[in-house]
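Protein in question filed below.

…
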Amino acid sequence: MRNIVLLLASLVLLTACAEAPLAIEGSRGFFWGLFDGAVAPIAFVVSWFSDSVGIYGVPNSGGWYDFGFLLGLTCWAGGGHAATRQRKRY
């Protein structure tokens, strides 16, 4: 139990060092987030072979970019329709 607590504490301390650039207004907004989310699975595979490709646009304009990114990602999972679809029983 003590080892787990030490491991979690060290992970929290390491994540405290993470730094992201400040959001720049007008840089990448909702529609860029939507596009980046839609191509994220492809960009993820390409990022394995190239250091210049990332799946998340930084810096972006914050919350609207994040919302568009998540909306774009749902197109790969079928969106909300896949979760609510009922199967026909014969």
